[in-house]
Amino acid sequence: MQELVNIFVKSIFMENMVFAYFLGMCSFLAVSKSVKTATGLGIAVIFVLVITLPVNYLIYKYVLLPGALSWLSPQFADLDLSFLSFIIFIAVVASITQLVEMVVEKFTPALYSSLGIFLPLIAVNCAILGGSLFMQERGYETLGQATTFALGSGVGWFLAIVSLAAIREKLKYSNIPAPLRGLGITFIVVGLMGIAFMSFMGIKL
Amino acid sequence: MNKKIFTEPLFKGNPITVLVLGICSALAVTTKLEPAIVMAISVTIVTGFSSFIISLIRNTIPNRIRIIVQLVVVAMLVILVDQILKAYSYEVSKQLSVFVGLIITNCIIMGRIEAFALGNKPFPSLIDGLANGFGYGIILVVVAFVREFFGSGTLLGIQIIPLNWYLKNGGFYENNGLMILPPMALILIGLIIWVQRSISKDLIEK
Questions:
Q1: Pick from B79, B107, B186: CB nearest A187
Q2: pLDDT by residue (tens digit) across B38-73?
């Protein structure tokens, strides 16, 4: 249990998807103009991460790892499919976002009207694929760990985009040199937020 | 015509500083010059050839499933690049870790396919893809140059600042540790955007 809490806190603050690895930057910069849309996208990211990462974990563990297919037949014992992981992961992410979109549209129209427009965007959000690739690289041992990691990094991403959106709403009223306006100052603000987040790195878990 | 397609993304339509595409996988690889150059080359190859392939088959792809078709083509090219990197420069491939895989979701690639390759002939698409890869590479190399030079005092792993300048050897110089930290990449790009928009005023946002 303690281990899961560690992974959760670590993936929110110390290994924040945005500030430590710059994942999901494109939509992060494009959709952070108002707090309302930022919240929508943030929730959608948490949602999709928590669904796709465990699925990818199971596929990786029981299909792709060297010898993983031996549950099917002993003759597959030294088959190594891990070079296929990129294409399988992205296919899973793309198809699950499509599925989630259809399910949400069918059963909870209210949620669909607030999340719907963001779901297609998410298929190509690097934070989602990045989550699966980090899961593969760090070798989480149980499904619980992988899911906790997904939830934690989703929440971290959500926090980052909502706080950037709040800052940008305030920035509209400040007097910034013309060439720096818009994109330039946003980059610098994100950099400063990143430096602020680095203070969490001193925490040892 | 082809010349304009080639020169546009290098400055005026630069994918990173003007179109804001492909920042995701770009910044974390710029602490050192070498991985940045490898990354720039990989992305250029993938963008060029994915645009080319998609443009070849653009009239046969059903519109509804085009995103998945594009992702499969891109993922195939990225797997090729990844395997080649693992075979010929294993060290760099370890340093780039997950970021090679993340080329798949690099927005430059999907952006150029959607915006250019789906509506143009294969050869201009190839040029457009390559040029956008170069535009991306230029920014990456500039950022990596500054970060490695000021952060570690080296370029491509070769010591540039003389060792006897350092404080610990009785000199006056100290590396700027801030440059190595991830947030500096963002701040540097912010400054590059500032410089670029001061030069060409028509890019300034209202």
A1: B186
A2: 888 888 999 899 999 988 888 888 876 777 788 888
Read off the tokens for A141. 């041992």
Which of B194, B195, B196, B201 is best to mutate for the A interface (most A CBs within 10 A)? B194
ipTM over the 0.95 cut-off? no
Task: Give the contacts of A17 (CB within 8 A, at least 6 positions apart).
Answer: A11, A23, A24, A127, A130, A131, A153, A156, A157, A160
Do residues A132 and A89 touch, judged by C-beta distance below 8 A? yes
User: For A81-134, what is each residue's pLDDT tens digit?
Assistant: 777 888 888 888 888 887 877 777 788 777 777 666 666 667 777 788 888 888
List of chain A residues whose C-beta atoms are within 8 Å of the C-beta of residue B83: 83
- Separation of alpha carbons A85 and A91, rounded Å: 10
In A124-148, which positions are buried (b, 16+ CB within 10 angstroms) versus exposed (e)? Answer: bbbbbbbbbbbbbeeebeeeebbbb
CA of A75, closest CA in chain B: separation in Å? 25
CB contact under 8 A, A123 and B194: no
Nearest CA in chain B to A92: B68
Q: Where are the domains of chain B?
A: 2-145
- For residue A182, the chain B residues in CB contact (below 8 A) are 205
Asked whether A140 and A149 are in contact (CB, 8 A), the reply is yes
